Amino acid sequence: MADRVTCSFCGQLTCGGLRIYGEVICAACEERLARLEVEDEDYEQWLACLRTLWTKWLNEN
Ligand SMILES: [Zn+2]
Prior knowledge:
This protein is an alpha+beta fold. Helix content is 44%, strand content 20%.
């Protein structure tokens, strides 16, 4: 049985999901990120989320 964890991007509860350095990205967000284009309206929002995570990871290393 997989743990129910909260996605670091959308905040939805997800089972399993992609784990990167303790952060969880649900399947929906992973798919969205894979299709993200610079001209997308929400591109900046996604980028801001990623920057937040990156900063966290860099600080932990
Ligand atoms: Zn998500």
